[in-house]
Amino acid sequence: MTTGDILSRLQGVKGGGGQWSARCPAHDDRRNSLSISTGQDGRILLRCHAGCSVDAIAGALGLSVKDLFEDQQKRPQERPQVVAVYDYRDASGRLLAQKLRRADKSFSWRRPDGKGGWIYNRQGVPHSLYIAGTLSSGAVFVCEGEKDADNLHRLGCDAASGADGAGPGKWRKEYTEQLRGCSVCVLGDNDGIGRDYAQETAAALYGTAASVRLLDLSKVWPDIPEHGDVSDLIAWAGDEKAGELLAGLVAATPLWTPEAAEKDPLLSLFKSLEDFPEEEAKWLVPGWIPEGQISVIAADGGIGKTTLWCHIIAALSNGASCILDQPGFTRKAMKITFLTTEDSVRKKLRKKLRLAGANMKNIVTPDFVGDRSGLLHKLKFGTPEMERVLRYLRPVLCVFDPVQGFTPPKVNMGSRNEMRDCLSPLISIGEDINTTALIVCHTNKRPKASGRDRIADSADLWDIARSVMMAGFTDEQGVRYLSNEKNNYGPLQETVLFTIDADGQVHKVGTSWKRDREYIIGAEMAKSAPQREDCMSFIMKALEDAGGAMPTAELEKKAESAGYSYSAIKRAKSSLKAEGKVRYFHTGNNNDRVWHIRAVATPAMEFVELPADTPTPFDDVP
After folding, report:
1. 609 in helix, strand or coil?
2. 510 and 595 fall within a common domain
3. Which of 197, 239, 400, 520 is the most buried (most CB within 10 A)?
4. The domain that contains 204 carries what CATH number?
5. Residue 479, CA distances (Å) to 504, 516, 519 in order
6. Cα separation, 591 vs 347, whole angstroms
7. 277-288: pLDDT as tens digits
C-alpha cells in the first residue's frame, strides 16, 4: 500500500512534499485533523489530532495496520499488476478519470492529460458515481465497489457505486443528485461499516430518489460470511440463481423510510397547531380571575389586600358568592391553598376566614410555626418543592401573599428575565392541574404612576399576569375600590366599590367605571387643593402686613420659609391673579427692573400701571 493509495481514500487532502493533512475517517471531522507522512522505515504514519487510534483510522479506510507499510524498494515496473480499470465519466460520456485496481487490492487514479497521456492523480476531477449501465428512471442497484457494480451489470442490472468505498461521510451530495428520480436498491456489505454506510446512503437518497429499498443479503443467503457482498452472492449461487434471488429480495423488501428518531424530551414538546385543542377561557371568578393562570391583586398598605383575598377564598371554599360575582351567581365548594409570610394564621387569619363563612376543611395552609427544619423556606417560585406541593394538593386556587415572600432570594425582582423565569412554572403547572395563582403585591408611591408602573419592585408581574386588580380608597369616607386594570381573556369589568366593617368583613356598596388612575389623580388633586388655598391666604396676609405690595422674589422667599412648596406658591399666585385679587408691576429700568405684587384692594401707589394684558414672567404659571 502506497501513500498515494492512502491519500486516494481520504477526503479534503491538502499538502505535499511528504506531508499531508485530511479529514479523519474515524470520526465526524469537520476540519483536517489527520496528518499523513512516511516514516524512515517505509511505514505510512497516520496521526489524528482529535485522538483517534491508528487501528480505528485504518479500519475506517477498510484496511489493517499492516497495510500502512509502503514497499519503497519496489520500482514502478515492479508494482502489482493492474487487474481492472474503472472508467468514471460525466453525464455526456466524457472520460473524467480511471480508477486502477491492482492485484494486491490497492487502488490508484489517473486522469487524461489532454495530450493522449495520463496524470496519476485525480485532482480537480468532480465527484461522480461509477456507473455500470445507465441511470434511468428504472431500478438502480447501489453497492460499495466498482467490482460489485460490474457483476450486477453482467446480470442485466443497472448499478452504481461511490468512488471511495464504504465509510462514514463517504456518500456525497453529488451522488444523490445523480440518482434523482431513480428507483434505488441499496446493497451494503455484510459487516458493520457496510450496514452503516447503507443506512447513510438510504437516508441521503430518501426524498430525492423516486423510491429507496435497503436490501439485506442475509434474507436470501442466511450463511453469508462476514464482509460478504453481492459479488460473493453471485459466486456462491451462480449468475442465474443470483439474479432470481435478487429479484425476489427486491419484491419482498418494503420501501425504506427513516426510522423514528429516539424521542427527544425537548423536541417532543413542539407540536403542530393541529394538535392543539381550541378552548374557551374558563373563569374561577367570572370576568375577574381566569382558571389555571396568574392573577394579581395590588394596593398600597392599609387598603385591605389580605381582607380582600380572605373574602374571596372564603366564598370559593364554601360555594358562596363574593363581591366580584353577579347577583344570584352560585358555585360548588372548592379546595383552596394560601401561603402567607405576613399575617399569623392562628392570631388573625383563621378568625377572619371563619367570620367570612369559610369552609375550614377546604382551605389548606402550611404551618410555619411547626416547621422546625426550615423545609417551608424552600417554597419559592420555580422550585421543585413548590411544584411538589401544588401537584400534591391540587387546589383550584393558591394565594401568595406577598410576592416577595416567595421570590427566590437570589432573584432580582427588578430583572424582567429573572422574574419571568421563576414565575413561568406557575403557568405550566396551573394549566396542567387547573390551579389558579393569585399573587398579592404592594404598589409603589411614585407620583403620577399608573397601570404596570404602579406594581412595586417588578413590572413583570403585570406582564405575566392574565388579570390585574388594583385596590385603593375613593374620595368617599370609608369606601374602597377594586379596579380591573388588565384582562387578557375578557373585557375589563366595572370597578367594584366596597367597605370593610369593624369585624374585617367586606361589603359591596356599588360599582363605577372609574379606574385606578382616575382615583389616584383625584386623590392627588384633593391633597393639593387645601395647600393651594392655604398658600393664597398666606400671600394675601403677607401683602397686607407689608402695606399692600412687596417684591415678588421677597414674597416667594417668605412663603417658602413658611413651608410652602415652589409649585404650590406658583399655583396660588396664578389663582389670585385669575381671580383679580393681585396685580403685578415693576420698578426700575430694563437693567435693574424689579417685579412687585400688590393686593388690588390696597390704595394706589406712585407707580406706572401696566395694561392688564401686559405679559409678565408669571403668566405661564399653570
Report:
1. coil
2. no
3. 400
4. 3.40.1360.10
5. 14, 14, 12
6. 73
7. 888 889 999 999
Q: Which of 587, 571, 584, 585 is nearest to 621 (CA)?
A: 571
d(CA 572, CA 308): 40
With 0-12 CB in 10 A as exposed, 13-18 as middle and 19+ as buried, what is 579?
exposed
Backbone angles phi, psi at 407, to 5 degrees: -90, 130
184: left (phi over 0), alpha (psi -120 to 50) or beta: beta
Q: What are the residues facing 506 on neighbouring strands?
A: 500
For the domain that residue 475 is a member of, what is the CATH number?
3.40.50.300
Q: Which structural domain range is residue 344 located in?
A: 283-514
Extract long-range pairs of 228-233: CB within 8 Å, 24+ residues apart. Answer: 228/189, 228/190, 229/143, 229/144, 229/145, 229/148, 229/187, 229/189, 229/190, 229/194, 230/141, 230/143, 230/148, 230/151, 230/152, 230/187, 231/147, 231/148, 231/151
> Are the C-beta atoms of 422 and 407 separated by less than 8 Å?
yes
pLDDT digits 0-9 by tens, 205-248: 999 999 999 999 999 999 999 999 999 999 999 999 999 999 99
DSSP code, position 348: I
Q: Which residues pair with 185 in a beta bridge?
A: 141, 213
pTM: 0.49
Three-class DSSP category at 203: helix
Q: What is the tens place of the pLDDT at every residue in 423-457?
A: 999 999 999 999 999 999 998 877 777 777 888 66
Q: Which residue has the cell 387547573?
A: 434
**Residue 88: strand pairing partners:** 97
CB 324 within 8 A of CB 487: no
Contact 134, 158 (CB under 8 A): yes
